[in-house]
């Protein structure tokens, strides 16, 4: 059997199957790690730290780890964790550590100890002389894990810190000065953007990126990969067209507008266009003079028809707050592109948020691509192994569980309609609740979670609801979901990173709950990704605990209607319950899910095709910016361009350092402003690129053809503008009166994330626009 297993592993590797990293090398090192235990146990704490220091001296600066170094790191880490945390790392955790230290994404099931495995790997990289960023999905986990693992790092002689939104610039600088820094992906990204706007080297908070260990790697590297992080500066109030919003609010689906089956696009019918044109005073939306109003109508229609309150967003404290589609939580600081954000605010009649000029942005994928070495860990990596390989050149190592998983994954129950499905879910909850087993129900959105909770309350089945309205209490709520008789209703993936322990957080009734059968997980519908299904199931059955999971579905769920609406003939439902047992129904569900996964992957690819060029241009510009920031290049250029004015300025300042800084600020202002203008130009090109497809031109090629010449003007133009500024500015005791000549940076800046592009690919947009135009011509 062992021979067959080895052959199977090698065969998977040869044919490049997902999850095919060979573990034999790591497994062979485990006996040597265990052999060191008696020796290390005899050492005093100071001696253990000294031994880690000797390892640091031996491997510092090396390009990779030898087997003997992996053994030493794991042995020292296991002993440090035993002393400081009271936890002796399992062999499988050490396998995970070695997988991370060799640059892989390791798949470890829920409850198998990813946090400790990641910490030992981070310490190992630090001992090799690398700065490490442990990238988390939220600020809570960043602080929790840094503090939790802190004593282990201390004993190994490795410094650790974390960044969070409340930190000052100095606190951030200190945190990034540590050898290991924990931070949410957005927070680390925002610091990158802030650093790209500094005008003095001392204001930088980060150092050059070296190693990233990504926690919940599937969420960060795949789900949020194409989400842009944005740095904006104040312009003015973000006023939407209130008149258009009122008009669109009166339009009716099927009469005035239509939507596609995926719910991603909406367009006016001829009747709808007539109503809108008449309401706007007789404008022609499809004439050049009405193009601005048409754009406003289209974005208002998108907000009205395609974005649903309590599904796509909440209105809380007088503000529109987006809901993260992958996690069902409020996406802090996240917003749609300005036009759509304003349209939703007008739709909900709330105060419009400020509009900003985009100073810089970076996608999560591009952020992680900055690190020369990347590794990651998650419970569900195999399902996205192809994407990890395609976009990051990362391979997946599947770590076996320490204790075999005994969770019972029951077959999906399929119903004809959502209402019949909901009745069956209520009955399932009642039946299981009567046994005393804890229940976790995963719903699709806020509205569904609250509808179900209301039905359960009427049926005298009390539950705790966890959704975007109370996500601040997420960790505390989910930690108690394993208590006897607990019923927890949650949107999407509740509490990733927080264990659901049988018997609750204190485990007082653990044995009793285990005897009852453990945690029972119920999914109210299949998710657009099988990986999300797996994540919900994985909340039950941690570390060999008993448990079970079941999904309920309907052939009228959004997943099916959007991705596989054409049902095969002959599927019959039970006349009383509406339940369908025909295997064809299950095949239809699986097909719909595969289609949804394919669409998501294509959107990812399409987005990356466009952003890849922007990232290359940004890298080239940043190289030049760093040269201006750290050298006297700006002063040299201005002296050559304006020798007389430069000499006058030099005499006035009487300091080389002050002179260089004034010149640097002028040059960087124009360089940053031109980059901001370039981003705005590229946005305009991207939004109108579908018109190129009408002329049978390739949109991506046309995008490149427009973007490249404009970019190559930036550096020379910034130098020219800087020279003109020096020529026109009045020289004062402080240097130059820059405000007088318009050199004024935004007095307010802020950061946010832009929601995934709500529109389809260029080709699909074009098809819909052509279809709409054809209908208009026919009418």
Question: Could you explain how this protein is built, in words?
Answer:
This protein is of the alpha/beta class and 779 residues long. Helices cover 51% and strands 14% of the residues. Strands 15, 16, 17, 18, 19, 20, 21 and 22 form an 8-stranded mixed β-sheet that branches. Strand 18, helix 20 and strand 19 form a beta-alpha-beta unit. The longest helix has 48 residues. The N and C termini lie far apart (72 Å).
CATH fold-type name of the largest domain: Rossmann fold
Strand content of the residues, in percent? 5-15%
* Estimated radius of gyration: 29 Å
Which segments are poorly predicted (pLDDT under 50) over 5 or more consecutive residues? 1-5, 11-16, 756-779
Instruction: Provide mean pLDDT, rounded.
Output: 87
- Helix residue percentage: 40-55%
The shape, in one word, is flat
User: Using DSSP, what is the number of strands?
Assistant: 25
CATH architecture of the largest domain: 3-Layer(aba) Sandwich
The total tally of domains equals: 4
The CATH homologous superfamily of the largest domain? P-loop containing nucleotide triphosphate hydrolases
Number of helices: 31
What class do helices, strands and sheet pairing give?
A: alpha/beta
How far is it from the N-terminal to the C-terminal residue, by CA? Answer: 72 Å
What is the name of the CATH class of the largest domain? Alpha Beta
Largest β sheet strand count, sense and barrel closure: 8 strands, mixed
């Amino acid at each position: 059997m062992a021979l067959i297993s080895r052959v199977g592993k090698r065969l998977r590797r040869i044919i490049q199957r997902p999850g095919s990293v060979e573990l034999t090398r790591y497994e062979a090192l485990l006996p040597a790690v265990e052999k060191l235990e008696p020796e290390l146990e005899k050492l005093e704490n100071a001696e253990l730290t000294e031994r880690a220091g000797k390892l640091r001296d031996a491997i510092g600066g090396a390009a990779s780890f030898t087997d003997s170094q992996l053994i030493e790191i794991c042995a020292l880490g296991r002993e440090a964790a035993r002393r400081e945390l009271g936890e002796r790392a399992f062999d499988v955790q050490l396998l995970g550590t070695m997988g991370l230290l060799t640059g892989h994404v390791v798949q470890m099931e829920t409850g198998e100890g990813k946090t400790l495995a990641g910490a030992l790997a981070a310490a190992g990289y630090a001992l090799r002389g690398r700065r490490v960023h442990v990238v988390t999905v939220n600020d809570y986990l960043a602080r929790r894990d840094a503090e939790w693992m802190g004593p282990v790092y201390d004993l190994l002689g490795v410094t650790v810190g974390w960044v969070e939104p409340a930190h000052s610039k100095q606190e951030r600088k200190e945190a990034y000065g540590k050898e290991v820094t924990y931070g949410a992906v957005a927070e680390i990204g925002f610091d990158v953007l802030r650093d790209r706007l500094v005008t003095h080297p001392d204001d930088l908070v980060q150092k050059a990126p070296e190693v990233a260990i990504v926690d919940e790697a599937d969420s960060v590297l795949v789900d949020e990969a194409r989400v842009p992080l944005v740095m904006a500066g104040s312009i003015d109030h973000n006023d939407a067209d209130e008149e258009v919003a009122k008009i669109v609010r009166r339009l009716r689906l099927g009469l005035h507008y239509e939507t596609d089956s995926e719910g991603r696009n909406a367009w006016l019918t001829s009747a709808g266009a007539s109503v809108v044109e008449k309401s706007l005073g007789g404008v022609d939306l499809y004439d050049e003079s009405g193009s601005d109003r048409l754009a406003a109508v289209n974005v208002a229609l998108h907000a009205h028809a395609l974005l649903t309150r309590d599904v796509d967003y909440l209105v809380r404290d007088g503000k529109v707050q987006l809901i993260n589609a992958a996690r069902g939580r409020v996406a802090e600081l996240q917003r749609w592109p300005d036009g759509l954000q304003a349209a939703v605010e007008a739709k909900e009649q709330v105060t419009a948020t400020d509009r900003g000029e985009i100073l810089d942005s970076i996608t999560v994928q591009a952020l992680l691509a900055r690190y020369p070495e990347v590794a990651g860990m998650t419970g569900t990596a195999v399902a996205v192994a192809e994407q990890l390989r395609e976009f990051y050149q990362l391979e997946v190592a599947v770590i076996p569980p320490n204790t075999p998983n005994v969770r019972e994954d029951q077959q999906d129950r399929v119903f004809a309609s959502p209402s019949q499905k909901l009745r069956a879910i209520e009955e399932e909850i009642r039946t299981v609740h009567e046994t005393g087993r804890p229940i976790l129900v995963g719903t699709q959105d806020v509205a569904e979670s609250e509808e179900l909770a209301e039905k359960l309350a009427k049926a005298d089945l009390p539950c705790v609801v966890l959704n975007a309205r109370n996500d601040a209490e997420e960790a505390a709520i989910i930690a108690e979901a394993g208590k006897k008789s607990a019923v927890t209703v949650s949107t999407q993936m509740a509490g990733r990173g927080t264990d659901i322990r049988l018997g609750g957080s204190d485990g007082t009734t653990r044995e009793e709950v285990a005897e009852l059968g453990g945690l029972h997980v119920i999914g109210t519908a299949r998710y657009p990704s099988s990986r999300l299904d797996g994540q919900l199931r994985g909340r039950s059955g941690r570390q060999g605990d008993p448990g079970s999971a079941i999904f309920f579905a309907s052939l009228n769920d959004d997943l099916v209607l959007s991705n596989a609406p054409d049902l095969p003939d002959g599927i019959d439902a039970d006349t009383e319950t509406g339940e369908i047992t025909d295997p064809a129904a299950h095949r239809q569900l699986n097909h719909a899910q595969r289609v949804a996964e394919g669409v998501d992957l294509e959107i990812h690819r399409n987005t990356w095709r466009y952003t890849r060029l922007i990232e290359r241009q940004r890298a080239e510009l940043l190289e030049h910016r760093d040269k201006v920031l750290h050298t006297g290049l700006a002063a040299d250029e201005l002296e050559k361009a304006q020798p007389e004015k430069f000499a006058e300025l030099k005499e006035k300042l009487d300091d080389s350092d002050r002179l260089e800084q004034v010149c640097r600020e002028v040059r960087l202002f124009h360089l940053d402003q031109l980059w901001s203008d370039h981003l705005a130009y590229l946005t305009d090109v991207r939004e109108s690129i579908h018109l190129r497809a009408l002329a049978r031109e390739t949109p991506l090629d046309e995008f490149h053809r427009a973007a490249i010449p404009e970019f190559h003007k930036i550096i020379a133009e910034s130098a020219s503008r800087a020279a003109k500024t020096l020529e026109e500015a009045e020289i004062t005791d402080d240097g130059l009166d820059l405000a007088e000549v318009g050199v004024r940076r935004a007095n307010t800046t802020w950061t946010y994330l832009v929601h995934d592009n709500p529109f389809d690919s260029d080709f699909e947009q074009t098809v819909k626009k052509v279809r709409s135009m054809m209908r208009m011509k026919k009418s």
